Amino acid sequence: MSSPSRSVPDGCPGALSTHRAADGPLARIRLPGGLVLPEQMQVLAEVAAELGDGSLELTSRGNIQVRAVSDPDELANRLAAAGLLPSPTHERVRNILASPLSGRVGGLTDVRSLVGELDAAVCARPELAELPGRTLFALDDGRGDLCGLEPDFGVYAQADGSFAVLLAGRDSGVRVDRQHVVSTLLDCADAFVRLRHKEWRLAELDGGAERIVDVLGLQAGPVLAMPAPVEVPPIGWLDQDDGHVALGAGLANGVLGARLAEFLAAVDRPLIVTPWRSLVVGDLDEEPAEQVVRVLAPMGLIFDAASPWIRVSACTGSPGCEKSLADVRADLAAAVDARMTPRDERQHWSGCERRCGRPKGEVTDVIATGIGYQVS
Questions:
Q1: Which residue among 79, 288, 324, 328 is the one 20 to 30 A from 356 at the CA level?
Q2: Given a cut of 80, is residue 298 above it in pLDDT?
């Protein structure tokens, strides 16, 4: 079955296909599993300072954006040299989430090796380059932290060693062993490519999950209820199962300045960008972990789970978005400084009714109207 023609172009930005934002070209760099090696973070810090607006934006899919790119070709060259652009044809569809603490703190199984396997397998299938840039894969290690993000194609580890196959954010009833996780997810994604017309997400395809199960001849049994979306990301001092320490850190508005990014690279430990616009620094000894907190907290990393910044988020707002009716991030920062944001609920501030970047779950919306904000 050949895939139907698409009349609507996919405008999802990538590292090669930048988006023309109000403040200039915007590039989105996919980070499968959210993993950034120290040398890669150094490159990202440099491109942010030399080719962008001086900062890196963390996204709700564990990726990173660079705004106001002055030289897209040079950006692409530097990313490719750093190993951040392994497939020019598939670079926009490498949206792969993995439980950020997997293999370090808790979880039923370590899914880190599956990230690389899935990424390589996606890039090796030419037909999967036709996936929409909004497609989301997820590898949940059994703690349930990714289920609430409603991935198009995902797995949820079970206590018996099997994996529940998630389609359109729900349990499909299909169970696979670890050996067949990657092949099953790829087959499901390939079926979506063949079935879709103008749909950007599997949930938009009428009966999409059931049709994929049927087309592939998968056996489905009873389904699980999905865990609720995560409200607070891992923040602070986290004792790893191997005796080392991981540090979870938030960022105001999910924005990482280039200078702070350089300091993180100098820590020389693996970094994980989480889907909650936060970071995890892994595999630290206790004394270096204490030093990281002492040095980087004053520079903007938030290690306190009670910080009001942990429960609030915002869209880009003005001047980056031409549709925004307000400088949302500046207004949110002023509200946080004035202690006007609630500490017991999540808020998302938006510059218009589109509510871009709104997290899943129960969220209070604060929407710009042009003459103030409306709370709903």
A1: 79
A2: yes
List b or e across 296-305, with b for residues whose CB sees 16 or more CB atoms inside 10 angstroms.
beeebbbbee
Residue 29, C-beta contacts closer than 8 angstroms, at least 6 positions apart: 15, 44, 63, 64, 65, 66, 79, 84, 85
Nearest to 30 by CA among 89, 110, 71, 99: 89
Residue 4 has pLDDT above 90, yes or no: no
Positive or negative, the Cα torsion across 173, 177, 180, 186?
positive
In the chain, the amino acid numbered 181 is V
Any bridge partners for residue 350, and if so which?
A: 367
Euclidean distance between the first and the last CA atom of the chain, given in angstroms as a whole number: 45
Rounded Cα distance between 159 and 161, Å, is 5
Dist. CA 249–CA 272, nearest whole Å: 10
Model confidence at 7: pLDDT above 60: no
Provide the percentage of residues in the chain whose pLDDT is more than 90. Answer: 95
Query: What local confidence, expressed as pLDDT, does residue 10 receive?
Result: 81
Given this model, what pLDDT does residue 241 score? 98
- Written as one letter, the residue type at 263 is F
Rounded to whole angstroms, the Cα distance separating 344 from 327 reads 25
Per the rule left: phi > 0, alpha: psi between -120 and 50, beta: everything else, 295 is: alpha
pTM: 0.95
Count CB neighbours of 81 within 10 A: 10
3-state helix, strand, coil in the chain (%, to 5): 30, 20, 45
Report the pLDDT value the prediction gives residue 46, as an integer from 0 to 100.
Answer: 98
Q: Residue 53 corresponds to which tokens in the numbers above?
A: 């607006």
Half-sphere exposure at residue 158, Cβ-oriented, CA atoms within 13 angstroms = 20
List beta partners, residue 279: 249, 273
Instruction: Report the alpha-carbon angle 296-302-305, nearest 5.
Output: 145
Q: Which two tokens stand for residue 40?
A: 């890669």
Cα dihedral: 92, 20, 54, 246 (round 10): -30
Cα–Cα dist 68/75, whole Å? 11
Q: How many CA atoms lie within 13 A of 157 on its CB side?
A: 21
The residue assigned the tokens 């903007």 is 300
Q: Are 58 and 40 spatial neighbours (Cβ–Cβ below 8 Å)?
A: no
The single residue listed with the structure tokens 């293999």 is: 103
